[in-house]
Each structure stands twice: as C-alpha cells, then as structure tokens.
Design a protein that fits this description.
The protein is an alpha+beta fold. The protein has 32 helices and 27 strands. Strand 16 and strand 17 form a beta hairpin.
C-alpha cells in the first residue's frame, strides 16, 4: 500500500546561544512530502524555487558494514560500477548524460553504512534524471561484464593508492579499525577494502550483491529544488513502479567497539616526516543521546586557544601546533579519536603525558557555561550552512530517512544539540574516556621507531610491491551482450527536456569608501547567514626572495589576538556569535574571510575590523607559528603531491621568480624571519587602496555600506605598488623531469606549460576548448582513456589557472606506478591528436554542457562570492556570463583546433613525474623526449 506523509522541518526561532541576548534566529523551514511506492521505495520531495535547479539523490542502505570478510571494499566498488552503464542509458551511463544536460557531474560516496548517488541539474532535466536513476536501480546488472569489472577494479585500487598507500599516515585508520573492532565486527575493515579482496571479486559476487541490496525497499530517492511535486510524482511512478521489491532486509544490531585492554601499536611510515600519536576510545552510534554531548566534549578539549589539550601540549610543553579530537559516529557504533602530530623529533611518550595533563585539567575545571554556549553557537551556524543548498537539504532528508525513517529529524537533531548541559559533557567524559581502555597508534618516520610510545608492538600493514606488468589486462571496448529486462514501455527512449529555465543572474551592487575600499555585494535571504571576504592585493608577491613566508606568517599572526584581546579572548568573542573569521595569505593576496548568522553580522564585522586594524603581534604566538610552519614544510617534503606542486612551479616559473616559491617559504627562510619583518610588511602593504569587500547573504546593500563607516574612518590609505613578475614563455621543446620518492605506490604527473592570464581575450575560449580534453570530468578524453579505458588512474584533469598574471595549462594525475610510462604515452597521444580529431559531437557536448550548466552557476553563497571575485579582480561586467554564452555559441571546430595548437602543444611542455626512480626513471626515455632529468639525488631504497 502506498503511504504518504506531508511534513515540515521547522527549524524555528531558536534562542540565541548567548544568554545575554533574547534575539531569535529567523525561522527556516525545509518543507517535504514523503511517499512510499508499493515496491518499498521511499521518495521525498522538497520544493525550493530560489534557483532553477534540482538536486537528485539516491541513497541505498548498504555500505562496507554489509560486506562479508574476504570481499571487503565491495560496496565502494559497486558504487563505481553503477556509474558506468545501464540497459537504457547506454555506455557511459549517467556520467555521459550529465555532460549533455549541464549537470554538476554524477557523484557518489560510500560510507560504512550507506552508498549515495547525487548531483544537481537544471530543472528542465528532472524527468531525464528520474528515468536515469530508475535505470540504474532496476536495469543495470546485465551490463556488467568481466572486462568492465576488471577495469573498475584497477580504478578503485588506484583510488586506494592515492588516498591511503601514497599518503602520510594513510594506513592509520586501517590499524585502528583492525584493533578497535573484533574480527567479526563489520567495522573491522575499511570502506576502501584491501587490494587482495578487490582483486578477488568475481562477476557472480557483483550480481549477488546487486540482487540483495540494490532493491527499492532498501533505497531512498530525494528530489530537492525547483520542482512541481504533482508532475514529479507521476514521473516517479512511471519509471520506478515496476521495479520489483527485494527480499526483506533486517536491520543490523548496534554493536560497539571492544577494547579489552589498552593496546599500543607503531608503524614506520614511508611518507611521514614527523611523529603522530592517535588515541581511540569506543563510544556510541549516531543519534544516540550521548553523541551530542560527545561532540561538545571533543570540540571543547581540542578546539581553540583555551582548549585544555592545546593549553598543555601547544602553549606549555610546545610539543605540537594543534590537537584534533572528534567523535566519529556511525550507524552501528562510534569512536572518539584524538590525533596529535608532534614536532620533528619529539617522543610520543611526552605527547601522551601531556594529553593526560590536559585531561586532568578538564577533570578539575570542567566546562563553563560561557564555553558551552559558544560551542553551541558554532554548531548552530554549521547547521544552517549544511542546509544552504538544495543538495545539502536533500542529503539531510535522505540520511535521516535512511537511518531513522524520519526525513524531518533535523528539527529534533538541532534541538538535541542545543540541549546539551555541562553535566552531560562531564558525564560522557567519565563514561567513555576517563580510565577507559583505548587503542594508541604511533606513526613515525622511517628508521625512527624510538619515537613511538614505549611498549608499542609493530602494526600489521600490508604494503603493495611495485612490479611492472603485474596487473591483468582487459579490453573494456567489448560490448556486453544480454537479453534486456522486460518493461511495460520502451525505456530506451530518453525523456524530452522540460521548459528551459531562464538564466537568473544575481543582482550585483557596487559601492566604494573614501579610503579606497571597493564594495561588491549580492543580497540573498535563503538562509539567515552572511559570508564576506575582505581581500587585500599583494600576498607573497610583495615579499623579497630572502624573506619567503612573511605574508603567510603575517596573515596567520593577525588571527592571534588583538591589541585589547588575547588569543583566547578573541576566539571566544567570535565563537559566542556562532561566527568564524579567518585571515590567510595566497600568492597574490591576503584575505579576511567571515561567516556569521545575519543577526550577528554587525558584531562579527566589528571583531574583523579589530583583527585587521589592531594587531597584537604577540611574540609567543609568533614563535609557535614559526615552529608550526616549519613542521608543515617538513611534512610536505615527503608528500608526493606537495613535492610535485613545488617542483612543477619551479620548472614553470624559474628559481628567480617569486611565483615559483612555496607560499609557506622554506625552512631556512622561515627560521630567519623576525616579528619585525611582519610588522614592516603589515605597515607597508595592508591598505584599503588595494582592497575590496565582497558580501553575500541575508543583508541589504544599505546595511553593508553603513556597517563599513568605521572601517572608512579608521583604516587609512597608503600607496602600494605590487611588483610584476613576468611569466616565462612556453618552452621550445619538451623536457622530462623526475623527482625520486622511493617506494611510491603511485606516480604523480604534472605536465604543462605557461599559458594565459584570466584577462586574456583567449582565456575563456581556451577553457571551452579544454572541456573535452580534460576539463569535463567523465566527458573528457583524458578520463575516458586513462581511467575508463585503461584503469591507470583514479582521476586525471587538465585546466588553465591564470589570474591577472599569465598562469599555466596543466595536466595532473596520480597513476599506478607500474604504468607511469604508459600513462605519459597515452597523454602524449591524446594531445597530439586532439586538434584534428575534435568532432561535431564533441562540439555539441561542449556547448550543451556549458550553456545548460549556467542554470546552476550561482546557487550557493560560495558560487556568488566567486562571481563577485571575477567582477572585482578582472573587471568583468555583472552579466559576464552572457558574454561567455556568446563565446560558447560562436565556437567552431576550427577555432578549437587553433586554440589547441597554440596552448596545449605537447612538444612545448614540461613533463614532470614524481615517483619511484628505481622502477620508473629509466623507462621514461621511451616517451621520446630525451633522457629524463633527475631533480633530486637518488634516494636509498627503503625497506618495504
């Protein structure tokens, strides 16, 4: 029997967390209607007509916890397979359709407990999406063949190499899971699974998994956005009704982790440069009454200057720059984790002793009312941020329905958060942390086992061997042959588009202050939030080459207190408002970024102004920041991605160009920077004459301009001249460079050359040209060939990165080590052929995506801020999107060829590989670009 439920999530009139204020947060309503089809599918509709877009999410109640031992990683592997093809969508599946309809890109994720598939599309494509989601759920499995499965295994194994094997501390969670949960517990293994289990997965395993779990009565479909519920309901019935119901799926019992005795484990990490201690206690599952207090407890213990753990470990003992503690709650169990990454050479026994002192401090002092209220205020703001897009609202509805059968639980969720008391916080500490058994892992640099906790035993971690030619071969072009699943109508006919949405460009206002500060804003009242960026041009460009890192340290130090407020007082003042304010430096600017509830905008802006105009320049904080920056630089030395980024910039720009330098500086430059250097930078370059204020949210232009009167009076203008560093021209010939990281499980590729500035007349046109090459995700040739065709990589992309200065064209990827050469050869071939093989179909796909995707171009606050940034930085018109549409509409194959020959010529590129020289360096000669140049000394082989 079909069930219907109509309800409202009424996040209504919560009292501001500051006890001194009776002001109420503007009511926010997330309306929804829920129906249940006869086959058990739950369907939830949410109407939001603020933008002409719809978010579509299919959530299936299966994750790694529903797997069986020996087939770990299967739920995640299946997530990948479901994107590839279905009976009526055809090869390329939803990814291919997404490009045609202007979608955000078919995306998905797998957790311990669920798998979701989601994207945002223009509203005229809603029926197409409902048709496609039904095809995936009911008409998919026949398209999976042995070659398809073999290829996707390689893709998933590459994802594991990228996210786990080739990353510092990447195996930490694996070690924790194996020791926190018994062998028969479904959280004993990681979501990504093991390489061995992935390889052993069979086609029959896939079919059995699909039949059991991918059934309507185990799924939730959410349609959120500019929809007509009556019309959408008809489409849902049409496409989903005849998909048969599966067998009943019993709920899994809650099952906490089990630590019979405290256990210490260690591991010498190939990619670690500083030691890290992680302590983990079993806790409670999500939605448990104690989970809310545990969220408050972990944030209080580790977040901010006054946090007990930071007071001891950072300020008193100076063992680290920060601590991280959080409660990780899943459907069946939870765990509370504390992570401390110590400074270079520090013994983790000292860190453990410091943690115990921090806990003792909390036990004696507890948490104050003031601290409790400021944490709640921040949690309330985060709650609204999570509901600030149709995708965010949809995901919230889907999750609560999947786990509780109640899409509208968000109302109760935030109430439970705001109801936590001081007694609750101390009670959960005593219940789950104090004197309780735990797991401790010490991940230390290679050959530094002495830094691990005393009494630690070696953790069992399986490392992959690098063997050229070890992977199985497959031909993904072999088409599946099968008898189609019967249907009452012809499902191969793709639905027509609905009425095309009109392009809704946000109204932009511009103003200016007498001191030179320029103002750009967009008023938007979807949620009671305001976001603002105050950007000051200059950044690292204003540094001297012997003082690299000054801009970064200056920005960091501006966060550390004001003339009249200590670091702790400033943090508490911001947090009591439920706001965030953060100042950071980039290559070209320093930005003060803020987010606040609209009701607290004036107070938040006053604190931002105080940080900007009344810096504290605290010597102690400066010393801590230097130490933290040096520690960060040491960690980058062993991160293949960081190494690749830094080496690539040096090759592109040259040693004497500041654009080649790490914004953090170097270890030696940071060591030599004094606080006087920061004061000099601040006094010379922090000026409204080179600044702009970008504001988006629930606030009027008049209120914004009036709120800046004090900044106009107190921030005095000065002349600032920003040096121009000429970007070199593209090289005359290709050169291959190699940076050795022994035992790297992947090679990081960075191929490219200097190209265009964002203000260049060809810049957007070149980006249009790049869509099919490497900018269009699964529509791109690079992805189709290296990921979908060969299984060499988890992801590959190309793009232009210009600003006001000429930037680069870059192709980047992480590929399986033993196909480094083959990957480079494939890229080379694609580049060589691209100008002459770009087809009419490619042009149609490019135009379709770039025009239709404009419907969702400005949905989120972040997208609106990026729009204002383009206008402010590059002098674009407020309706610049219309000019871009004209560029797309006028594009031809001949113009694509011209742009490709000019800006993506493989014979005028730098080809950088960061990987294992022992197995891959000599092979790179076969690329045909001469002897590869080794950028660092060949390192010693490391024990595996």
């Amino acid at each position: 029997m079909k069930k219907i439920c109509i309800a409202f999530i009424a996040i209504a009139s919560f009292i501001a967390c500051n006890n001194s204020s009776k002001e109420k947060t503007k009511e926010l309503r997330v309306n929804y209607k829920k129906i249940e089809l006869d086959n058990g599918l739950d369907v939830i509709f949410h109407v939001d007509k603020s933008d002409p877009v719809v978010a579509v999410e299919l959530m299936v109640h299966v994750g790694s916890a529903r797997e069986k031992e020996g087939r770990t990683g299967f739920a995640h592997l299946f997530e990948h397979l479901l994107f590839l093809e279905s009976e009526n969508l055809g090869k390329g599946g939803l990814d291919k359709m997404s490009a045609r309809i202007g979608g955000s890109g078919a995306n998905g994720s797998t957790s311990r407990d669920r798998t979701n598939y989601l994207q945002t599309v223009p509203k005229d494509a809603l029926e197409k999406m409902i048709w496609a989601e039904a095809d995936k759920l009911g008409y998919f499995i026949n398209t999976v063949t042995e070659p398809v499965l073999a290829k996707e295994k390689q893709v998933v194994k590459n994802e594991k190499r990228q996210s786990v094997d080739n990353r510092p501390y990447g195996h930490n969670q694996y070690v924790i899971g194996k020791n926190l949960y018994p062998k028969n517990h479904p959280y004993n293994w990681q979501v990504i699974g093991s390489l061995e289990d992935l390889q052993n997965a069979t086609l029959q395993d896939v079919k059995d998994f699909y039949k059991k779990w991918y059934v309507p009565n185990n799924a939730t479909l959410v349609l959120s956005g500019d929809i007509n519920i009556e019309e959408a309901t008809k489409w849902v019935h049409k496409y989903f009704d005849e998909i048969p119901k599966g067998e009943e799926i019993p709920a899994l019992e809650k099952k906490p982790g089990e630590v019979k005795e405290t256990k210490f484990l260690y591991y010498e990490d190939n990619f670690a440069r500083v030691p890290q201690l992680t302590m983990v206690w079993p806790s409670v599952e999500m939605y448990h009454e104690d989970s809310y207090a545990l969220e408050v407890l972990t944030q209080y213990l580790s977040d901010g200057k006054s946090a007990p753990l930071n007071t001891v470990l950072v300020d008193d003992l100076k063992l680290t720059s920060n601590t991280v503690m959080y409660n990780y709650a899943s459907e069946l169990a939870g765990e509370t984790q504390l992570i401390v990454r110590a400074f270079n050479g520090k013994n983790l026994d000292e860190v453990k002793a410091g943690i115990e002192k921090g806990f003792a401090k909390f036990e004696s002092e507890g948490i104050s009312d003031k601290d409790l209220q400021r944490i709640k205020a921040g949690q309330e703001t985060q709650f609204y941020l999570g509901l600030s897009s149709v995708l965010g609202k949809g995901s919230n509805l889907a999750s609560n329905n999947t786990y509780l059968g109640n899409p509208g639980f968000a109302t109760e969720d935030i109430k439970k958060t705001l109801a936590v008391t001081k007694d609750d916080v101390m009670r959960v500490y005593n219940t789950y942390i104090k004197d309780k058994n735990y797991i401790a892992t010490s991940f230390v640099p290679k050959n530094s086992a002495e830094l691990a906790l005393k009494g630690s035993t070696l953790a069992n971690v399986v490392e992959e061997k690098i063997v050229n030619g070890a992977e199985e071969t497959f031909d993904p072009k072999i088409a599946a042959t099968y008898k189609k699943t019967p249907s009452s109508f012809d499902r191969s006919i793709e639905p027509e588009y609905g009425k095309a949405p009109s392009l809704a460009v946000p109204k932009v206002y511009e103003a200016g202050l007498e001191n030179g500060l320029k103002i750009y804003g967009i008023e938007n009242n979807e949620v009671p939030l305001v976001r603002f960026n105050l950007t000051i041009d200059g950044g690292q460009l204003l540094e001297s080459l012997d003082k690299l890192g000054v801009a970064n340290l200056t920005a960091d130090l501006l966060n550390k207190g004001t003339k009249n407020k200590s670091v702790q007082q400033l943090e508490e003042a911001i947090q009591e408002l439920g706001a965030s304010i953060y100042i950071y430096a980039t290559k070209e600017n320093i930005t003060l970024s803020g987010t606040t509830l609209a009701k607290n905008y004036t107070k938040t802006l006053a604190l931002a102004q105080e940080m900007l105009l009344e810096p504290r320049f605290d010597e102690t904080e400066f010393a801590l920041l230097k130490k933290a920056t040096i520690s960060n630089l040491r960690q980058q030395e062993a991160s293949p991605n960081s190494v690749a980024r830094n080496a690539y910039n040096t090759l592109i720009y040259g040693e004497d160009n500041i654009r080649s330098k790490n914004t953090l500086g170097t270890i030696s430059s940071v060591e030599n920077i004094s606080i006087e250097d920061l004061k000099e930078y601040y006094n010379n370059y922090i000026s409204p004459s080179v600044a702009k204020m970008l504001v988006v949210g629930d606030i009027t232009e008049e209120t914004v301009v009036n709120s800046l009167a004090s900044l106009n009076t107190n921030w005095h203008s000065k002349a600032v001249t920003i040096p121009e560093y000429k970007t070199p021209d593209a090289p005359n010939k290709p050169v291959v460079y190699f940076y050795d990281i022994p035992n790297a499980k992947q090679s990081v590729l960075q191929f490219g050359a200097p190209a265009l500035a964002a203000t260049d007349k060809d810049y957007y046109a070149a980006s249009v040209m790049n869509y099919i090459l490497g900018g269009g995700g699964f529509a791109s040739r690079l992805t189709q060939e290296l990921r979908e065709g060969k299984g060499y990589t988890y992801g590959i992309r190309s793009g232009f990165s210009g600003t006001k200065a000429k930037g680069t064209f870059t192709i980047s990827s992480g590929v399986r080590s033993n196909v480094t050469l083959e990957s480079a050869q494939a890229v080379k071939k694609i580049l060589e052929e691209y100008p002459t093989t770009f087809s009419d179909k490619d042009l149609e796909t490019t135009k379709g995506f770039l025009i239709k995707s404009n419907a969702r171009a400005f949905e989120t606050a972040g997208a609106k801020l990026r729009m204002l940034s383009n206008i402010a930085n590059y002098g674009m018109k407020a309706d610049y999107i219309s000019d871009r549409e004209e560029t797309v509409n006028n594009m031809t194959k001949e113009r694509i060829s011209e742009l490709a020959n000019t800006y993506v010529n493989p014979n005028k590129m730098i080809w950088l590989i960061v990987g294992d020289a022992e197995t891959q360096l000599n092979r790179m000669k076969e690329l045909g670009y001469g002897e590869p140049i080794l950028l660092n000394e060949r390192q010693k082989k490391i024990k595996n």
